[in-house]
Automatic annotation (TrEMBL):
The keyword Membrane applies. InterPro entries: Ig-like_dom (IPR007110), Ig-like_dom_sf (IPR036179), Ig-like_fold (IPR013783), Ig_sub (IPR003599), Ig_V-set (IPR013106), Nectin/Nectin-like (IPR051427). Cell adhesion molecule that promotes cell-cell contacts and plays important roles in the development of the nervous system. Acts by forming homophilic or heterophilic trans-dimers. GO terms for cellular component: adherens junction; plasma membrane. Keywords: Cell adhesion, Cell junction, Cell membrane, Disulfide bond, Glycoprotein, Membrane, Repeat, Signal, Transmembrane, Transmembrane helix. Gene3D superfamilies: Immunoglobulins. It is a single-pass type I membrane protein. Belongs to the nectin family. GO terms for biological process: heterophilic cell-cell adhesion via plasma membrane cell adhesion molecules; homophilic cell adhesion via plasma membrane adhesion molecules. It comes from Cyprinus carpio. This is Ig-like domain-containing protein. Its main location: other. Residues 14-136 form the Ig-like domain. The chain crosses the membrane at residues 150-172.
Amino acid sequence: MEMKAYDGFNVFIPLLLSCTSVFTVVTDPKVTGYQGHDVTLLCQYIHGSTEDKIQQVQWTWQNQSSKYQIMVFHMDLGLSMHETPLKDRVSFSRSSPSIDDVSIIIKDVKISDQGVYSCDYTIFPSGSHTGQTTLIVLECNPPVLSTAKAVGIVTAVVIITLVITVVGYLFLRNRRYVTTKHLVNASKYDRFMPTAN
């Protein structure tokens, strides 16, 4: 299996020897979550062949001490949630998951949720193909813009816009004045010039 990184995503591109099937499993290589907030882990399958049939998708999680099978979504049997510390806090990111997009949301993320999350597609006849994401959880809250800072930024933008408008107006007014003065002077000069008859 060949892995390439494109724009911060892991893209696994398995190539079968028969060259009849090419597909990709797309995941984020690393995701940062903040304790007490929700975090989304991306997992998408991009079809390369209509011959491949997805049988199931499985999410697993490995932390420093254990490996857990979080959930399995089987095409015929539906969703099966396993007993893990995440059971009541994990769900698909879409209310009706598509087999092509089985991204998950972990609600109220905790420091202990850190680890490597694997999204494993079982596809017939090509086999199993996995994408992985490392979740890092920080204790501090994500940066949030306070109301006072937001008001300050908006005020600064308004003042800058006002200054630019006034300078532009004065420039155009001055230019028009200089042009008018030049025309007036030119017409005065023309009065004193002898005309050729």
